[in-house]
Amino acid sequence: MLGQLLRMAGCEVVVTITGEQAVEAAKTLRPHMVIVDLNMPGMDGFDTLAALKLLPLSDGTVYVAHTASNDTALLAKVRQAGFQHFILKTSGFETFETLLSSIQGPPAS
Questions:
Q1: Cα–Cα distance between 75 and 12 in angstroms, integer?
Q2: Residue 28 falls within a domain, yes or no?
Q3: Considering 13, 22, 35, 73, which has the largest number of Cβ atoms within 10 A of its Cβ?
Q4: pLDDT tens across 17-71, in order?
Q5: Which residue has the higher pLDDT, 21 or 10?
Q6: Per-residue confidence at 94, pLDDT binned at 50, 70, 90?
Q7: Nearest-5° angle of CA 94, CA 52, CA 106?
Q8: Boundaries of domain holding 31
Q9: CATH number of the domain within which 35 lies
Q10: What is the separation of C-alpha 103 from the centre of its chain, rounded to a whole number of angstroms?
């Protein structure tokens, strides 16, 4: 569903199911933004972020945590891990538009 919302906003989207798949895809796609579900099978979102940060991606890559929980302790852990943004799964389309408009596009070639 998140992928569909982002496509509606005009984004090019690649959806993966696991953290391992996300890391492999990022190696060739070199994404500008990565939205990571914190509760995935296999690698959780925090382990996925750590693996992504080891890749030679753009310095401007934006990492967004995506989860159903808005627990204060989890929010602190999200920030400490290095996510720049946090989106609740119950957020509406307007939230995604706001996020997208607050993030600058990739540098011009």
A1: 27
A2: yes
A3: 22
A4: 999 999 999 999 988 889 999 998 889 999 999 999 999 876 788 899 988 887 8
A5: 21
A6: low
A7: 55
A8: 2-102
A9: 3.40.50.2300
A10: 12
